[in-house]
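User: I'm putting together a small comparison set for a docking exercise, and I want a reference complex before I start. The sequence is below, and the ligand is PBG. Could you produce the 3D structure with the ligand included, as structure tokens?
Assistant: Of course. I'll restate your input first, then give the structure tokens for the complex.
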Amino acid sequence: MYPLRRNRRLRQNDAIRSLVRETFISPNDFLVPLFVVEGNGVKEEIASMPNYYRYSLDLLKAEVKELWSLGLKSVLLFVKVPDKLKDNNGTEALNKDGLMQRAIKTVKDVCPEMLVMTDVAMDPYSSYGHDGIVSDGIIVNDDTNAILAEMSLSHANAGADFVAPSDMMDGRIFEIRSLLEDEGFHDTGIMSYSAKYASAFYGPFRDALDSAPVDQQHVPKDKQTYQMDPANRDEAIKETLMDIEEGADIVMVKPGLCYLDIVRDIKNTVHVPVAVYQVSGEYAMLKAAAEKGWLDHDTVMLEQVTAIKRAGANIIASYFAKDVVRVLQ
Ligand code: PBG
């Protein structure tokens, strides 16, 4: 073939590279996770997530307006719950004046068009730091689902556009969809964390929300009985297909970079939007390496989000969203 075929012809300058480029990143790709805390005037940096913060509701307003002005039109809300409000049933999660419910209203007040997605899971509310009710060392499935459905309804009532169950209980999408339909929330969507792995990359997030499983007798030390084994691939497709059947509008693979083969498998298999969560540990890793001067932050960041999109992501949930927009501008 050589010299008829010289692949470098398509790489010789910026103009031709731009012309043949296959993947583009824009603000439209991103879903921005936001951490919310009680209080006033609080903007606390998360120790293991440099330049990422927890906001009290008053300061959340400015942050949301800034995101909107940058073209970032979707947020994913998480709340940090005070210890004294935590119990085994996550009772506080259903408080209609709880922090999440107020956070949803706050975002909608300052920016009605901002798409609001909410984390639906018990762990920030659980005294054991688990995504379900703990009983005799077991995470109980069906009773947890009933709570997740009520939590979703409560978020919908407060004005959430999408609920995003991140727990990995079996059948929860069906329970949530059914209750939302029964209560008239036909247009409230579900983004399911459908292929969520039992990953060690969630460490900084658990610092951010103080939500790690507690070290106590009869409490599982990790989430391996509900989150997926990183070694498995077929199982990710099975989980995802089941969630779609149960009523998920958007499915998700989590974490991102280590699981791009799964993203591509799922993208090739399903016909709903696929979200990828570039998780806290992925963020922390790059920030740390850049701080040391070992990696070039912006270039590596763009390479990573481009790779996630190239693998098949339609939506990228990422702590880098603002950084990416800054670099693109
Ligand atoms: C828990 C939840 C986790 C994340 C999102 N929702 C952590 C976990 O499963 O322990 C992790 C996100 C991240 O690491 O950025 N329901």
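The pocket of PBG is lined by residues 119, 121, 123, 131, 166-167, 202, 205-206, 223, 279-280 (CB under 6 Å). The CA atoms of residues 176 and 182 lie 10 Å apart.
User: Thanks, that's exactly what I needed.
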